[in-house]
Design a protein that fits this description.
496 residues; Pectate Lyase C-like
């Protein structure tokens, strides 16, 4: 569903003062996170390659009719309306189209093991986009390659296993598009009810133009699982995500593993995942109020995404050499709304806009963490060789919190460049906010500051930063967020 009405309301009220709270849409906030935030108790709970698919067959079709004397392309769609009919199809040739008849289907467990080619993928689609609804213990498992899945919806899912939609180990280059998963009609369930809506194993998959709304149970909504020696290379683009509910633990704090998205896990965090997460719309994503997106692998790109009124941050929790570029963060002054948290080596954060985010510490608009000595894979690795440049911070509670961490985090930020950024605080009664807050370590951090424009105050100004006397002109990012929201999600009217 195109959810732009909240954005239009925010545009209309942009100049109004006042601070709200995420408690309007979620529960009690948390001020910190644990060293192992967001990992599952078990690693990679896939059952391997027992389907016999090698998931890497691109075929030799050169576009000629019946090449090499092989099987001709089917001339008619294969129309089905049950899991039994799907299973009865058996192996089907590349280029086939399987159409599921419109209707509502309960407890339908679908398994796709077909092999298409790059030139002739196998298409599995609803009769009309959004016309097929699966309920109850329905699930989808994909173990083949070059399969394009589109037009389905899952309502209030209760899958029998750990995954609603799973692309298995060995699968490759499949597409999930124009689909919806909606849990808005389900009752919130506490700890012990964990499952994932989307689990991506294999290589080269694409999840695009889908809507994922109102997950009300434990478990990250979408997870990329890494396999030893395999670069995932998935693309997650133009989707709409919401997760307004927060499940509390036994101590009344937001429970772990309520991220919207996790790319990798701590055990494989030094492995190159090579995923691209772009042009997605995250709205009211309040799950664990710490990590909205949890990066736990290397070499991923986050670009062009919009985060609107969501509690937590895009967290580079584990792994190195990731890029966060051209994203938009707008908090409407709601408590616990944050931006980007940097941990590890070689990260680039550039050309992002952070506006009216209302937190400090781990959830500041930009938090660059101190590190631990001899950390475990699940710990806090020292920040080295980070670059923060050409970002704009507008009226945030705290634009940059540098060298921040718990008492066990004593290693300073090293060899880092912060350049050509603009950070401004509000004029008038709110003009006492800080733009940069620095925490001492021994030794002190090694940061090169160049070409930045700051309008506001500094706390512990170790680096001798200066503030301009006149507030620079800066433009709100609400228009760009509305553009991202309008382009995200299915082609049909999801949520209806």
């Amino acid at each position: 569903m195109k959810t732009t009405s909240l954005l239009k309301l925010a545009v209309a009220t942009l100049l109004l003062a006042g601070t709200a709270s995420c408690e309007d849409t979620a529960l009690t906030p948390s001020d910190g996170d644990s060293a192992g935030q967001g990992d599952d108790p078990g690693k990679n709970p896939d059952d391997g390659n027992g389907d016999g698919q090698d998931g890497d067959e691109d075929g030799d079709d050169n576009g000629e009719e019946n090449p090499g004397g092989g099987e001709e392309q089917p001339s008619e769609d294969l129309v089905i309306s049950s899991a039994a009919e799907l299973e009865a199809l058996g192996d089907i040739p590349a280029g086939s189209t399987v159409v599921w008849k419109d209707g509502v289907y309960e407890d339908a467990a679908l398994v796709l093991g077909w092999t298409g080619t790059e030139e002739n993928p196998i298409v599995f689609r609803a009769e009309t986009p959004g016309g097929v609804t699966f309920t109850g213990a329905s699930s989808l498992t994909v173990s083949g390659s070059r399969i394009e899945i589109s037009g389905f919806r899952w309502r209030d899912p209760e899958p029998a296993g750990e995954h609603l939609i799973r692309f298995r180990s060995g699968s490759s280059h499949c597409v999930l598009e124009d689909c919806e998963v909606d849990g808005s009609g389900s009752e919130p369930r506490g700890e012990g009810s964990s499952f994932k809506w989307v689990s991506l194993y294999g290589t080269g998959h694409t999840v695009t133009r889908c809507a994922f709304n109102d997950k009300k149970d434990m478990g990250a909504l979408l997870v990329v699982w890494l396999e030893d020696g395999v670069q995932a290379g998935h693309v997650i683009s133009h989707n709409s995500f919401s997760r307004p509910e927060t499940i509390l633990d036994s101590e009344g704090e937001p429970a772990n593993e309520q991220e919207v998205m996790r790319i990798g896990d701590s055990s494989n965090s030094m492995q190159d995942a090579g995923c691209i997460i772009e042009n997605n719309y995250f709205h009211s994503c309040n799950g664990e109020k710490a990590e909205i997106v949890s990066n736990k692998s290397c070499g991923n790109v986050y670009r062009g995404n919009a985060f609107f009124e969501s509690c937590g941050t895009l967290t580079l929790r584990h792994g190195n050499n990731c890029t966060v570029s051209g994203n938009f963060f707008y908090g409407s002054d709601l408590s616990d709304t944050g931006g980007v948290r940097i941990i590890g080596e070689g990260h680039m954060v550039e050309n992002n806009v952070f506006e009216r985010l209302n937190s400090v510490g781990y959830k500041a608009a930009l938090c660059i963490c101190a590190g631990q000595e001899n950390p475990e894979l699940s710990g806090y690795w020292q920040v080295k060789n980070a670059t923060v440049r050409a970002n704009v911070f507008i009226d945030c509670n705290l634009a940059m919190h540098i060298n921040y961490g718990s008492s066990s985090m004593v290693l300073p930020v090293l060899s880092t460049v912060i350049e050509d950024n603009v950070a401004v605080t509000p004029e008038g009664p709110d003009g006492s906010l800080y733009v940069v807050r620095y925490e001492n370590t021994d030794p002190q951090a090694e940061i090169t500051w160049s070409g930045n424009t700051f309008y506001g105050r500094f706390r512990n100004n170790y680096f001798g930063l200066t503030s301009v006397k006149t507030r620079p002109e800066v433009s709100s990012c609400l228009g760009q967020i509305e553009d991202v929201a309008s382009a995200a999600g299915p082609s049909w009217d999801a949520g209806q």
